[in-house]
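Weekly sync notes, structure subgroup
Attendees: PM, AL, DS (notes)

Item 1: joint prediction request from the bench team. They want all two components modeled as one assembly rather than separately. Inputs as received:
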Amino acid sequence: MTAAIVIGITNGAFIALIALGYTLVYGIIELINFAHGDLFMLGTFVCLTTLTLLGFSTEVGVSGTPWWALILAILAAMAFCGGLNVLAERVAYRPLRRAPRLAPLISAIGVSFIFLNIGLFWQGPTPRRFPDLLPQYDFISQFLGLHTLVRFTFKDLFVLSLAIPLMLGLAWVIQNTRMGKAMRAVAQDSEMALQMGIDVNRVIAFTFLLGGVLAGAASLMYGLYNNNTVFTLGFAAGLKAFTAAVLGGIGNVSGAALGGFVLGLLASLTVTYFGGQWENVGVFSLLVIILVFRPTGLLGQVQGDRA
Amino acid sequence: MNRSNLGWWYTATGAARERRLWGTAGAIGLALAFPLINRWLGLGWEAKLIPIALFIILALGLNVVVGFAGLLDLGYAAFFAIGAYTVAFLTSPVSPFAFVREGHPVNFFLAMLISAAVAAGFGVLLGAPTLRLRGDYLAIVTLGFGEIVPLVVKNTPDITKGTQGMNPIGYPEIPGIVFALDPVPWYYLIVAVLLVSVLITSRLRTARIGRAWAAMREDEVAAASMGINLVTTKLFAFSLGASFSGFAGSIWASYLQVIAPEQFDFSVSIFVLCMIILGGLGNIGGVIAGGVLLGGVDRILFDWVSGIVHGIGAAINNQDLQFMDVSRSRQMIFGIALVFMMLVRPEGLFPSARRKAELHAAEEGEVVAAQERAVLVEIDE
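Output from the run, pasted for the record:
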């Protein structure tokens, strides 16, 4: 149980980072960015390729952790995912901004298929091992001298100590910068924001950039934590993150972070009590249940005809 | 016979009506004569045309939900799976029902109707609580449902045989016709179901409920204030679409003789959605054309291109080309097709005039005028 909670919180951290990408985009242009999960999948491939190029391929037992390589890999993934997300917005969503709602959604499904196929061509159909570069260190057995099933490893610490500052940083950007203020204005009323002299297209592009950067950061954490990746990863990861975003109240940034952790816990408890094969059934059932009974999520506001 | 009784093709006048009459007759004639043509030319396409025709039935059903009623359903394959498994439960010797296992399978045609009803029932079950949701939320709920169904099938091997799949499944029984060996009776069975589906959906489109769907799709608030009950109208579209899918699923199960959860994953839902978007949402002729086009690309063109690529590979002794799997770029092609269609021709290749006007109204900046024109066009046709 406690073991499941630790795993759940750590998994929740990268689910939350991906969920932020959904919620940011939805908050601004009310589009479910279907391709976001596959963007994350491509991010894990960028990390893998970068690490392989730097000489840290799949062999286990590299002495010490090559921090500089990890930093390069995460920067590469953040730049790649951010850039690709902005590109997708420019090509596939921006021209449809005034089209009926379903048009950009269908376009996003198309983009997700394109990303999926790029992943397939890039790394092939079989799961790829991700180099295990972090120290194998378990704080509970090392510090407390307890030998239980509960483990809080260096990997857990790594994920949390990277994810939480990123989330706080995002909150700071949205609350305190000029661009963040513009984002909030566009989210409230894009027509009005435009008339106030805000470059709406730039703000939207910036939002996609932020979402992509967070997904890129999450992809390195995922790779180092789970030590594998596969081209079909994006679909399930994306749906989990979307569920988290809806759980927290879509469009609500702190809601997405909260939703990510709650969902991570729920998924790992499902695995503990019902077995791994029921994990996704649990997640999707939760999604259906929330949408039916509380479509505004935990922290969302009731909005007239929106829900 | 008066005009309104004969539905859509009698509402056309003059030359348009004549064209449509000949077009319909020609298409039916070609479909019926196909096995003969196939034998003369030695194409060997029966086995490829059966799945294409079956997927067109699916597309016609999804078109009711997405094209007519404007509800985006991304989990359509779930109902296909429900239909297939219902018929397997009722006719297969590995069924979980004792009476079926002990040698009393249900007649296939009865099982087919039951599976359509069961699928429709699940449609109501899923639709009743979720149809209040706005369009893109509904899309996600249906997507979730589409994922849950194959997962549950996979995880309950005691009932559904899990990933191993259910096999064999009962054949249709018509005296004097053997379904087990020959694809031709299957072809005629599926074409017959297809024609009935076309008839039903085309009649519904211009019926009272069809006009209610169109009104609701264009403006829910206005439709509700004109006295349309949104919940029952949506629910009817949703469950009717599900029953088409269940029907098609039952035929598919019996035709393949083995069903497993992987056959009903997300890519099936998207494939059918691509058909109707490519062909033209809401337009029955367009949906069929889209189905023929995509099905042809998927089942015939890919094989053909693979053959050519492998041939070139063998000729120039290139291992990569010789063993390249062209169908691996399936998703890429579908993805590009979806994005491209949305950007360039959101109404599809063969749109209905009304849908086209709706989709282009905003960019012309004259919504009302365009809709009025569309109504006029529809009456003219």
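Discussion: The longest helix of chain B spans residues 284-315.
Action: AL to compare against the crosslinking data before next sync.
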